[in-house]
Amino acid sequence: MAYRIGICDDEQNIVLILTGYIEHYFQLQGEDVEIHTWNSGEELISDKVFGTGEGVDILFLDIELPDMNGVSIGRYIRNMVSDSIVQIVYISYKTSYAMQLFNIHPYDFLIKPVRQQQVSDTISSLLQINNEDRRFYAYRVNKVINKVLVGDIVYLESERKHMRLVMTDGTSREYVGKIKEEINNLPEYFIQIGQSYIVNYRHIRECRPEYVIMDNGTKLSISRGYKADVTDKILKLGV
């Protein structure tokens, strides 16, 4: 199966350069890649590739498009079509946008002119995350082992000795377990925000000092004793 990479930039020379970098990376890896390009925000949105199973895995998105701001496009992708899977990598000549980007969850922010090594390192890291999301998380119910995709877990809730997995499709799974043991079985982008909750950083829509709001609209409080650790981990994971 080929990886699907998108590039949206109004400068055609940037599109061509990025296309060459991406093709070079996948040739070295011996992997197939499909590259989809757009020269404007309107063109990208009208293509309706997001929110479907046929979307792109990674989107290199110019933040300063002439017709639509890249921040607005990112919000459209995350909120309007609820696509939390595509990894967005912003590209820009400026560095002044970071605070506007948190709830869009971009993976990275590359400053133009972008170099081959930057693109290769970014793709390599993202494909590793992609593989982690496609790992299975196993839990036991009545001696039967069940599995869900790690990337489909929005958050985990603990009540006494019972755990509940809340999933992206709105369903939940309940089983016997302890939160202090579950956190050790999850990738580093899962954050414990209190005695009762572990959240998937990639499904946080909004983060405040006192609470987080998840993609499904659930508001979860950050316990006082966890605030410093939560802040440190979010800073480590990026904007």
Quick synopsis:
With 239 residues, the chain is of the alpha/beta class. The chain is 28% helix and 31% strand.
Explain what the structure shows.
A 5-stranded parallel β-sheet has the order 2-1-3-4-5. Strands 10-9-8-12-11 form a 5-stranded antiparallel β-sheet, with helices on one face. It is globular. The relative contact order is 0.11. The chain is an alpha/beta fold and 239 residues long. Helix 1 crosses helix 4.
What structural keywords apply?
alpha/beta; five-stranded antiparallel sheet; 15 strands; globular; 239 residues; 6 helices; five-stranded parallel sheet
Helix content: 25-40%
DSSP strand tally: 15
Overall mean confidence score, pLDDT:
87
Q: What is the number of helices?
A: 6
Q: Which overall shape is indicated by the principal axes computed on the Cα atoms?
A: globular
Strand order of the largest sheet: 2-1-3-4-5
Along the chain, the helix and strand elements come as EHEHEHEEHEEEEEHEEEEEH
End-to-end separation: 30 Å
